Amino acid sequence: MVLQTISASKGEMGPMVASTLKLGIAVLNGGNSTVQQKMLDYLKDKKDVGFFQSLAGLMLSCSVLDLNAFERQNKAEGLGMVTEEGSVITHERGEKVMQDDEFTCDLFRFLQLLCEGHNSDFQNYLRTQTGNNTTVNIIISTVDYLLRVQESISDFYWYYSGKDVIDEQGQRNFSKAINVAKQVFNTLTEYIQGPCTGNQQSLAHSRLWDAVVGFLHVFAHMQMKLSQDSSQIDLLKELMDLQKDMVVMLLSMLEGNVVNGTIGKQMVDMLVESSNNVEMILKFFDMFLKLKDLTSSDAFKEYDPDGKGVISKRDFHKAMESHKHYTQSETEFLLSCAETDENELLDYEEFVERFHEPAKDIGFNVAVLLTNLSEHMPHDTRLQTFLELAESVLNYFQPYLGRIEIMGSAKRIERVYFEISESSRTQWEKPQVKESKRQFIFDVVNEGGEKEKMELFVNFCEDTIFEMQLAAQMSDIGERSASKEESEKEKPEEDNPEMGFFSVTTVRTALLALRYNVMMLMKVLSMKSLKKQMKKMKKMTVKDMVTTLVAFYWSLLMGLLHFAFSVSRGFFRIVYSTFLGGSLVEGAKTMKVADLLANMPDPTQDEVRGGEEAEKRHPDKSSAEEDLADLAVNIEDTDLLSDIFGLDLRREGGQYKLMPHNPNASLTDLLNSPVPPPPTPSPELRRRNQGKGSTDEDGEGKEESQSEPEKAEGENGEKDVKPKDDKPKQKVRQHHTSKSEEPELQESAFWKKIIAYQRKLLNYFARNFYNMRMLALFVAFAINFILLFYKVSTSSAVVEEKEVVYSGPSDTSVRWSPVEGVPHRTVTVHFVLEESSGYMEPTLRILAILHTVISFFCIIGYYCLKVPLVIFKREKEVARKLEFDGLYITEQPSEDDIKGQWDRLVINTQSFPNNYWDKFVKRKVMDKYGEFYGHDRISELLGMDKAALDFSDAHEKKKPKKDSSLVAVLNSVDVKYQIWKLGVVFTDNSFLYLAWYMTMSILGHYNNFFFAAHLLDIAMGFKTLRTILSSVTHNGKQLVLTVGLLAVVVYLYTVVAFNFFRKFYNKSEDGESPDMKCDDMLTCYMFHMYVGVRAGGGIGDQIEDPAGDEYEIYRIIFDITFFFFVIVILLAIIQGLIIDAFGELRDQQEQVKEDMETKCFICGIGNDYFDTVPHGFETHTLQEHNLANYLFFVMYLINKDETEHTGQESYVWKMYQERCWEFFPAGDCFRKQYEDQLN
C-alpha cells in the first residue's frame, strides 16, 4: 500500500503522501529486513517505474531556503504593506520559508530505511532498476537536492555575513535547512555503506564534491561567526552536528578503498580546492582541543588556586600567553568567544565544556579521514600539506584512534578505524588484565592451528572485556555514589522526613516496652512468685532440674545477647540520626530561641492571661480556616512537635508560633497530659478540644475563676461530638498508622546508605586486591622475623597423689600419707620470646590480627574482582555448548564428566545466564533445535515457559503486584543457581588457595608458627618462582605414578626382608637391649621407606654386614638390586621428571618470548619480511596488528548499536556471531597485499 500510494502521487505532495511516508517509516524502523525484501520483490515483480519517478518528482518539489522570497517579505513588512492579518504574518514569517521541511525529512528518512542494515539489493536497485524500460537514478536525484540545499544555505550565509549576530528568525531558517541537510547526508551514507561500490562510483562521478566544497566554506566561516556570541551556541551545535554527518559520509565513501583509488584521488582534489576552508576548520578544532590541556595545567591552577572554576578575563589572557601554545590571533579569537558575568569573571569550565566536546567529536572523525587518506594515498604530495596543518589534531587523537586489518567480504585486506575510549586504555593497564594477558600468551602462542588460536584469542577478548567493564564499574562507583550523596544533600528539606527516629510513636513504644519489662521483672521477683517457684523446684526430678538449669542458662544467654544487640542497634541509630541524619542540626538551625519563649506563660499572671487565651480560643471563621489550611500543609511537622512537646503550632501575624495546649497548665500537667488527636478541619472537633480542656480543669479544681458559660459551652461541645465520635477515632487510628511509617522510611533510607557504603567498601577491596596480597606477604615476613627470637624454656614440677588423714576428732591438723602419695616429675616445654624491649610480643599479636584481617579482605576482594569473571567464563562455556554443540540436547555429557553433570543443574534456572551478556541464548537454542526435538522438550530442559516469553499487554495486566515481604524476597532467590554458583566458586583453585591462606592465618593465633606457611606465598607472587612450582606439577600424573611404583617396589623388598633377613635389622648398640626393626611388617616397611630410600647406598648401608653369614650371597643380591632399582633408577626418574619439566617450561617461555618478538600473532608473518624498513616489525605489531586494538574493536562492536554499524563493522559482527574467524588476516596483511603500490 505504501509503494502504491507513493507511485500514484505522480511526484505531487499532499497529506496522503505525507501520511504514507510516516507509515512506511514506522514499518521499516530498525531495518526490518522482512519488509524490505517484500517491498523489493513487489517492485521487481510489478516493474513499477512510477514509484521511482514519483520519488524523483517529490525531491524536485521539496523546497529549500528562498532568499529572494525572504527579502521580499521583509521589505513588504518594513513598508507596512500587510493586511489585517499582518500581526499573524509577522509572527509566522519564519514559517513561510521552507514550510515542507518535515515532509522532506520524512521522504529521505524513508529512503534511508529502505537500505538500512546495508541491504545491497535495495542499494543497487535505487541506482539502476534492472529489467525496467525506464531507469531512474535516485542516488543522483538525492545529490541534486543536496546541492540545492547547500546553495540556499550559502545564500543565507552571505545575507547574514555583514551582520554581527544572526537574528532569531535567521536562526530558525538555518536550523530547518541544517536538519534537512543532516537527513540527506544520513541517507547518502546508507546508500553507500557496505560498501556498495556501484553507488560509491555513482556519487564519485556526480556533483557531490561541489556540494561538499560549498558546505566546507559554510562550516569554516559560520563556526567562527557563531562561536563569538552565546545566543548562537545552539545553532553552532547544530552546524557542527551537520559537519559530523558530512564527514561520516565521506568516510563511507572510502569504505573498501584501495591504495591510490579513484575515490581517494577525487577526495584529495576536493580538499585541495577548498584548502583555505579546511585550514580554518582545522585551526578551529585545534584551538578548542588545546583548551582542556590549558585549564588542567599546573600553571593555570595558579590563577584559580581554590578550584572555583571562575577567573577574570585578564588572568585567562595571561594564562594563554604563558601556555605558549596559542598565537596572538588565536588568543584574541578565544577571548572574543569568552563571555564574562556582571563581575567581569569568566566561567572557564563552562567555556571549555561548551566548545571542547563538540570539537572532540568532529575532530576525531576528521582525524580518521585524514589518516585514511594518508595511508591509501601514500605518494600524493598535496596531502602532506593538510597533514602538516593537522599535525596537532592528529597527535591529540593518536591514543584514541584504533586501527586493525581484516579480510573483507571481497576477500581483500581492508583497514578499519574506530575510537578507543580513555577508560578502556586505563583498564588495559590494570594488574589483573596484565596477568590474564600474560597467561593467555603463554598458553596459546605455541598451541593449535590458526583457527584454534583465533578461537582462543576471541575467548580471551571476551573474558578480558568483561573483566575491564567490571573494573571500570568498580572505579566509577565511588564517583557515582559521591554525586548521589551531593544530589541528596541538595534536595529540599521537605522531601526528607525529619526526626523520624524520634517520633512520638517510637518514643511511646520504647517507654511502654520499658514499663512492661519492669513490671514483668517485679512480678517475677515478688515473694509470691518466688514461693511458687520453690514449691515447683521441690517436686522436680534430677532430669527436670538439669533440663531447667540448661534452659535457664540458655534463656539468660539469649537475653543478654538480645539486650546487647538492642542497645547497640539503638545507640547506632541514635548516633546515625544525630550526626549523619542531620535532622536535629537542621531543626536547631531553623528554630530561634524567641520562637520557643514567645508564648511561654508567665507564672505570675496565670489569672490575668486566662481571659486572653479564652479569646484566642474563639477566632473568627476565616482565620480558623486559614489556620487549618496552613496546618494541613505542615501536618507532619505540627503533629510531631505536638506529640513530643505538647505544643500547638499557631499562625499569628504571618508567622508560626509554638503554643501549649493549655497555657495556664503547670509543667506536671504538660508532662502527664494525654496525647491529643490531630487537628481536623471540622468545627465540632475544635469545640471538643476546647471543652475537653475546660472539663479537665474543672475536674481537678484548678480553675475556679472559669466562667459558667464557658463550662456550659464545653459540655455542649462534648455532647455534640459524642454522636460523631467514631469518625475522629478512625482518623486517629489512620494518623498513628501513617506516623508508624515514618520510622520505616527512615530505616529504609538508613539501609540504602548502608548498602551504598558497603558497595563502596567492597569495590575498594576489589581494586586493591593485589596491593593487599603484597601487604599480607610483608606482614608475614615481619611475623616470621619476630619468630626468630623464640627460644625453648623448660620447667619441672613434682606432682604427688595425696590423701587427707585426720588423727582424731579434736585434732584439726592435716598430714600426708606416705603410702598413697607417689611423687613424679613432669617437664613442661615453653616457647619464650627472648627480647629485652618488651615490644615484640604485643607487636606480634597486632601483626597476627592484622594478617588475619588482611587475609579476610583478600578473600572479599577476590570474590568481588575475580569470581564474577569465573562465573562469566563458566556461563559462556555452557551457553556456547548449548547453542553450537547442542549439549544436553543432541548429546549428553559422560558420567565421568563431573563438570558437565554439575552444569546441568543451571541450564533450567531462571537466572541463567546472569553474567554472560547474551541474555537470549535460550531463545536461540529454542529456535535452532525446537522444531526437530520439540518445543515442549526444549522448554522443559531450559526451564522456559510461555509467560516468560510473552510481552503482550494482556500479560502485563495479569502481572502480580510486587510483594516486598520477607517470604517473597526469599522465594525470589534462585536457589538452584546459587547452589551451582557456590559449586563453581569452591572448585576454583585460586579461591581455594586464598581459603587455605586464611585458614593458616587463623591457626596462627593458636600457634604462631603456622604463619611460616605464608612465606610460600612468595612463590605465587613472582613469575620465576611460579615456574619452579609448575615444574613439580607440570608432569604431576607421571610423578605420582612413579612414586607409587617406588612404594610398591619397596614393599616387595620389605616382604623379602621380613621373611629371610630379620636378624640383620638390629639397630641397638653394644650392651643394649636388641632394637629389631623388622619384627613386624609395618615397622619393617616404614624402616625401608624412611631409611632405605634416603640412604645413598641403599638399604645395605643401614643394616648389619652379612660377612660370614650363611645368607651372605643372598644379602649381596638383595642389597645390590635394591640399590639399582630404587636408588639408581626410580629416584633418578623422579628427579628427572622434575628437572625435565622445569627445563621444558623454561624453554617454552623462551620460545613464546621469541615467537612474540619474531612473528606476528595475528597474521603469522615473520619479522624478516617487515624489517626491510627500519622498525618495520615493531610498527606492524604496534599499529597494524596490535592485539590490544583487536580486543578494543570487539568491545567497540559489543557496545555499539547494530543499526549504527558501518559496512565493515556489520560484516565482522555477523562473522563473530556465527563464530567464524575468517575475517582475521591469516598469512596476509595490508602492506604485503599492496607491496608494489606502497613501495
From TrEMBL:
A Gene Ontology BP annotation from the UniProt entry: striated muscle contraction
GO molecular function annotation: calcium ion binding; ryanodine-sensitive calcium-release channel activity
Annotated membrane topology: Multi-pass membrane protein
Keyword line: Membrane, Transmembrane, Transmembrane helix
Primary localisation category: membrane
Subcellular location as annotated: Membrane
Domain EF-hand: 291-326
Pfam families with a match to the protein in the record: EF-hand_7, Ion_trans, RIH_assoc, RR_TM4-6
Bias (Basic and acidic residues) ranges: 477-494, 606-624, 702-729
Transmembrane annotation, as ranges: 546-565, 769-790, 846-865, 991-1016, 1039-1061, 1120-1143
Family annotation (SUPFAM superfamilies): EF-hand
InterPro entries, alphabetized: EF-hand-dom_pair, EF_hand_dom, Ion_trans_dom, RIH_assoc-dom, Ryanodine_IP3_receptor, Ryanrecept_TM4-6
PANTHER family associated with the record: B30.2/SPRY DOMAIN-CONTAINING PROTEIN, RYANODINE RECEPTOR 2
Protein name per the record: EF-hand domain-containing protein
Species the sequence originates in: Anguilla anguilla
Species classification: Eukaryota, Metazoa, Chordata, Craniata, Vertebrata
